[in-house]
Structures are given as structure tokens and as C-alpha cells.
Amino acid sequence: MSTTGIIILVVVVLLVIWCVSLYNNLVKLRNNRENAFANIDVQLKQRHDLVPQLVSTVKGYATHERETLQRVTDARAAAMGATTINDKIKTENALSSALAGLKISLEAYPELKANQNFLQLQSEISDIENKLAAVRRFFNSATKELNNAVQTFPSNIFASLFGFHKEPMFEVPQEERATYDKAPEINF
């Protein structure tokens, strides 16, 4: 074999190794994102288990809040029925909005806010929401890494060839952003 042949063979082998490395990195990033969402799923399952208890506790006190309670129940059912990561993100955002609406409407019930069962459920949901925020940050970080790899050259070429694409983040729903952007009211 000539020197030119050996050089061409070495270059081809290096290109193949480089391509395999890029592909493997994309697979690793996609798997990290899926693993991060599995962590979210654990917290979502706990939240789904608590919502019916919260709704039944509230029903005893807030009989005319049927529409709000129905919205929470429907949002929970939709969230539990979602199968893909993107569908789960969308339905979980709807459930978060419904729970936020429930919190607002319950401000008018001081006897409910003093109920120990309700306070415990509210504390557990608050704890789960905090844990969800942490795992969402991890998920969004994994998604950002995958999106960077999918969109930057030269891995974007392999990403499009093998069906990798930009994935959505797990963000706060648009309707809730106004609440978070508003300064808190402090009363003395």
C-alpha cells in the first residue's frame, strides 16, 4: 500500500470516529434530557396523587367553587393522560394554572385555611412544587445542552440526518408570568 493510500485510510478512519463521536454525544444529550424528565415525572405523580385529596377537602367548605374545582380535576386528568414529554409539559402547565386559580379563590374561606387537613395538604403540595422547580431547572439545563448541540455546527448536520431536533423547555405558562413579574404586595 502506498503512502497516499495510508494517509487516505487514516483520514477516513478519523472522519468515521469523529462522526460516531458526534452521534454518540447527541444520543447522550437526548438521554440526559429524558432522564431529567423522568425525575419530573416522579414529582408530578406525587402532585397528581395529592390533588384529589385537596379537591375533596375544599369541596366541603367551598361548595360554590365548583367551576374552579372542575378545572383542577380536568387539568389533572389531562396531565395524567399525556404521553409525550411535550404533551406533559403543556398539560402540567395547565394544571399549575388551575391550582394557582384554586389558591386565589380559596382566600375567601378563612375556616378552610385554618383546617389542619387542608394546611397539611397545602404544605405537601408546596413542597412538591418546590421540588418540581428544582427538577425543572435540571430538565431545562439538559434541554439547553441538547438544543445547543442540535443547533451548532457541525453537529447540526448529524442531528438533522438522524432526526434530532430542538426540544421545548419546561417554562412557566405565559398566563402565570404576569403574576411572577408583578411586585409582591406587602401590608402592615
Q: Give the helix/strand class.
A: mainly alpha
Oligomer: single chain
Give, in order, the helices and strands.
HHHHHHH
Fraction of helical residues: over 70%
Number of helical segments with 4 or more residues: 7
Shape: rod-shaped
What is the number of beta strands?
0
Radius of gyration: 24 Å
Main pleated-sheet profile: none
Alpha carbon gap, first and last residue? 88 Å
Average residue pLDDT: 85
Structure description:
This protein has 188 residues and is mainly alpha-helical. Helix content is 80%, strand content 0%. Helix 1 packs antiparallel against helix 5. It is rod-shaped, with a radius of gyration of 24 Å. The N and C termini lie far apart (88 Å).
Offer a quick outline of the entry.
The chain has 188 residues and is mostly helical.
How is this fold's topology laid out?
Elements: H1 3-61, H2 66-81, H3 85-105, H4 110-113, H5 116-151, H6 155-161, H7 174-181
Helix pairs in contact: 1-2, 1-5, 2-3
List keywords for this structure.
disordered C terminus; mainly alpha; 188 residues; 0% strand
